[in-house]
């Protein structure tokens, strides 16, 4: 399997948003009070609107892309969702679609 890239992630987001099956779960966010990423307790929520022109968030609340090689994109799968996990210096999030039964 090839390593997922930003282009892979963008393609996945466009396709699943068009199908109405795009979800996000933010798992950590940067906290300036402690100068590091801290865990966030959040469930999956459906992504309503996207703006692919915004390079840092792609218009998705809870997603932040640092840019260039500072984003670590890995495949993600659990019992209910399949997609990609994005980790960087600013946050961690899972962009996924619901598995079809």
Pick out its properties.
6 strands, 36% strand, 101 residues, mainly beta, six-stranded antiparallel sheet, globular
Q: Any overview of this molecule?
A:
With 101 residues, the chain is mainly beta. It has one domain (6-98). The protein is built from one helix and six strands. Strands 1, 2, 3, 4, 5 and 6 form a six-stranded antiparallel beta sheet that branches. Strand 4 and strand 5 form a beta hairpin. It starts with 5 loop residues before the first helix and ends with a strand. The mean pLDDT is 90.
Helices and strands, with pairings:
Blueprint: H1 6-18, E1 23-31, E2 36-39, E3 45-46, E4 72-77, E5 81-87, E6 91-98
Antiparallel strand pairs: 1-2, 1-3, 1-6, 4-5, 5-6
């Amino acid at each position: 399997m090839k390593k997922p890239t930003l282009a892979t992630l963008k393609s996945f987001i466009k396709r699943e948003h068009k199908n109405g099956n795009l979800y996000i779960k933010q798992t950590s966010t940067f906290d300036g009070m402690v100068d590091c990423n801290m865990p966030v307790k959040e469930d999956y929520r459906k992504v309503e609107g996207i703006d692919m022109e915004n390079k840092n968030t792609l218009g998705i609340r809870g997603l932040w892309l640092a840019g260039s090689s500072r984003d670590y994109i890995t495949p993600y799968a659990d019992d209910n969702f399949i997609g990609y996990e994005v980790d960087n210096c600013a946050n961690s999030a899972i962009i996924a679609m619901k598995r079809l039964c």
